[in-house]
Amino acid sequence: MHWIMLAMAALFEVGWAVSMKYSDGFTVLIPSIITVIGYIASAVFLSIALKELPLGTAYAMWTGFGIVGTSVLGIFLFGEKLSFPQILCVVLIALGIAGLKLMAKE
To answer: DSSP 3-state assignment of 75?
Structure first.
C-alpha cells in the first residue's frame, strides 16, 4: 500500500507542476487552485508513504518520477524540445527509479 501512496504522490506532483505552467505565474485562477490542491495532495501522499518507506528511496523516486513525468508532458502539452543529452539523462533517471524499486526491501 505504501508504494501506491508514493505513486499517488508522484502523480499529484506531476499534476501540480503542469497546472503551475498553465497558471501563468498564478494569474489564471483555476490552474492556480489546482496547483495548490495538487501540491498539498502530493505532500500528504508522500508523508503517508514515508511511514513505511525509507526517506532517501521514497524522495528520490518521488522527485525522479516528477522529472520524467513533467519532461514528457512538457513535450506533448507545451511543445518543449529536449536535446539528445537531455533525453539520455531523463532515461537514466527513469532507470534509476526502476532500480530503486527493484532493490527496495519491502
So the answer is: helix
